[in-house]
Amino acid sequence: MTDMTASAPAGRAPALAGRVKAAAILFVLFALFPPVVMLADDPFLVLIGTRILAYAIAALALDLILGYGAMVSFGHAAYLGFGTYAVAILSSYGINDIVLQMLGAVAISAIFALVTGAISLRTRGVYFIMITLAFGQMAFFFFISLSAYGGDDGYGLSQRSTLFGTQVLENDFVLFYATLAVLIGLFAICHRIVGSRFGRVLTGIRENPTRMEAIGYAPFRYQLTAFVISGCMTSLAGVLLANQAEFVSPAFMSWHRSGELIVMVVLGGIGTLAGAIGGAVAALLLEEVLGMMTEHWRLWFGLFLVLMVLFSPRGITGLVEKIGKGRS
Predict the structure, then answer these.
(1) Is residue 324 scored above 70 in pLDDT?
(2) What is the 8-class DSSP label of residue 42?
(3) Across residues 88-107, what is the average pLDDT?
(4) Which stretches of the chain are assigned E, i.e. beta strand?
(5) Transmembrane segments in this chain: where (predicted)?
(6) Which of 16, 243, 276, 310 could cross-link 63 (Cys pair, CB 3.0–4.6 Å)?
(7) 192 confidence band (pLDDT: 50, 70, 90)
(8) What is the dihedral of CA 115, 70, 22, 180, to 10 degrees?
(9) Are the CB atoms for 19 and 317 separated by under 8 Å?
(10) Span 2-327: which CATH code?
C-alpha cells in the first residue's frame, strides 16, 4: 500500500507540471485582459470576462469530482444558486460584506452537499447522475417558491457586495481581478489536493473502488469529502456571479446550467484542472461569438462539440498536447 501511494506521483509529475504551466499561461492572459479592453475602449467586455472567470471556478470545482472521482453530478449548478442567493438574502438583512456572504454560501453548500452526497454516493453510474439531478431540481424549485426574492422572475441587487466596508467591488476592473484571485487560489488548492495522498486515493477509487477498498481505504469517505469540497468551491463562483450580474435568479441553478458545466469540463479535458478553466473560456467565448452571428448558435456549438469529441476525446488539453508532441 505504501509503495503504491509513493510511486504514483513520480509518473504523474511531468503531466501535472505541464498543466500548471498551462494554467499559469491562462492566468497571465486573464491578467492582461483588462488593459487590452481599456485600449479597445469597450469596458463591457470586462463584465463578460468576469462572468467567464466565475464559470471557470465552477468548472474547476466540478472537474475535481468528475475528473478525479468519476462522480458525474448533474445537479452541481445548485451550488451556484446557493452562492447567488447567499448574496441576495444576506444583503436584505444588511450583511453586505462579500467575505461573510462567501462564508454563508460555503456553510449552506457544505450542509447540502454533505446530506445529498451521503445519499447519492450510495448509488453508482446513471443512478448517481439521476439522484444528483433530482436534488438539484429540488433546490431549484425551492428558490422558485421564494416570492420574497422574486420567485421565478429573479431578484435585482441594489448594490454589489462590500469588501471590509469599502465599495471597491463597484469598480468592474476590481471585481474582475478579485474573481481572478479567487480562481488562482482555488486552482492552487485543487492542484494541492490532486497531488496529495488524498488525491491519489481518490484517483485510485475512480479506477477501481473495489481494489482500493480491499487494500484498506474507504471509498465513501473520500468521495463524500471531495463532493463537499467541490460544492463549496462552486458556491464561491455563485457569489461572484451575483455581483457580476447584480441579479439573482433560479435560472443559475437549473439542470441546463449543470449540463453546461459538464460540457465545459468535457470540452477542456476531463481530469486536468487547467483544461476545465480552458473549457469554460472556450465554451463561453463560442457562445458570445456565435450568438452575435446567428440566433441558431446552439446548433453550431453542438456541431463543434461533436467534432471535438470525435477528433480529440481528451478535449482542448489533448489537442494542445498532441500539437506539442507533433512539433517536438
Answers:
(1) no
(2) -
(3) 95
(4) 155-156, 247-248
(5) 20-40, 52-71, 77-95, 102-121, 127-152, 173-194, 220-241, 261-285, 297-320
(6) 276
(7) very high
(8) -20
(9) yes
(10) 1.10.3470
